[in-house]
Amino acid sequence: MYSFTPYKGCKRCSSIITAVQQQDYSASVWLRRRDKLEHSQQKCIVIFALVCCFAILVALIFSAVDIWGEDEDGITEENCSKNCRVVLVENIPEDISFLDNGTSHLPLSAGLYNLLDQAIRVVEIVSPLWLLNSSDYESSFQPAARQVTRASDLTLLKLRSKGIQLKISSGMIDSTELRTLARHNAEVHYVNMTALTKGHLFSSFWVVDRRHIYIGSASMDWRSLATRKELGVLVYNCSCLALDLHRVFSLYWGLQYKDFIPSFWSKRLFALFNKNAPLELTLNSTKAQAYVSSSPDVFIPKDRSSDLEAISWVIQEARHFIYISIIDYLPLLSSNAHRYWSRIDGLIREALILRKVRVRLLISCWEKTHPLTFNFIWSLRSLCMEQANCSLEAKFFNPRVQRDGSLQGINHNRFMVTDKAIYLGNLDWVGNEFTFNAGAGLVISQPEGVEERNSTVVEQLRAAFDRDWFSRYTRSLQANKIPVCNKHQINRLVPVKTSHLDNGPAEFY
């Protein structure tokens, strides 16, 4: 009844097995292909992401160049002018006179007017304060000074009518003058230093046509042109130096309203010269070297020397004397508590002890003088006790006390002069200043042994320091006697114990 064909049945089984094996093979091939495809897709995603990142980086770089870099009028390091003229400028208040010394320099207001007269294309100004015409203060100073400040404001307003561009970089300040200038087509950029470094913008300099510069202690404030003692320098026909200072201006210009510091800077902001590679030039027909410095460290692009590096270099290169005229000297960092800040103080100590360099400190005695200032000065003076050829002298420049207790004639200078070089800056010698605040400085060094020493800016600045040092407006720091720098200080500073040293400082509550 039944027929059994084993061979034929095995053949069917074999076919089924073969089909299953083929399906398994196809499945494994598909799985391998899928794995390869997924791996390829992952690689493509990674490569695409890298390409996108690279493209964004390139776009940012070119965007940074467009934003940060500006037309520099074809001036380069190779073709810029190095045959320059330098002039010291000062503001000496009307009721301060140095009858016993004939040293005098071009008035600050006249020097700034002259810079504006030189302008053809663009005037770039950085100032920590803009307060030229304020009716709240006009009754406080002399009519002649009021005329100077009004004339300054009017001159700036007239630049546009001459086809001259006015560009201003300022901190986040409320200024009637800046609003007025902006309405008259001046370009004003604001730098939010509080957001960037928790500090302030204290830089004070001018760049005119990338050819002439001013840098010094004065800001665009009626007091700088009237009641304060200020000092700075004008450098004419010096496009090499002007171009470098213009790059500092461009850095501020690009930071308008930013609340973060860029992680990289455009190449056009890199310094052209620094302490290791200064500009070789002639100043008033005398060979010299110069470079621009700046602060704080987070604002320093490639190759720029910091203000602290510049100050350190000038101090370390001195061989005979270091004369310092500064508003405040306080080697402390203040946060929640004071911490000793040795960067400058330590260098002065080394100069005194190791190199036997004579040091003179002329410090302003004014309403904001910190009581600990005197202790640090005494500490420096104590180093020279019973030390041969060790000399540290300190004096305080006393302003005039008005009937209402306010002070006028404050010595607002910020400079140092040695036997080899000068440093002019915008910051007080206080630790917090260099850490948080924006400032700019200028170093000029000139060789010794020049026949006509009076022609060098080093000798001119030394003469200005000597005039102030020996004037009737200074007082020496005497043993166990603390200068009273404002009407409130006498109640605040009560000596409770004197040091065991004869010329040591008193201790205070």
Automatic annotation (TrEMBL):
One of its GO terms (molecular function) is catalytic activity. Belongs to the phospholipase D family. Residues 407-433 form the PLD phosphodiesterase domain. Gene3D superfamilies: Endonuclease Chain A (3.30.870.10). Keywords: Membrane, Transmembrane, Transmembrane helix. It holds the Pfam family PLDc_3. PANTHER family: INACTIVE PHOSPHOLIPASE D5, PHOSPHOLIPASE D - RELATED. This is Phospholipase D family member 5.
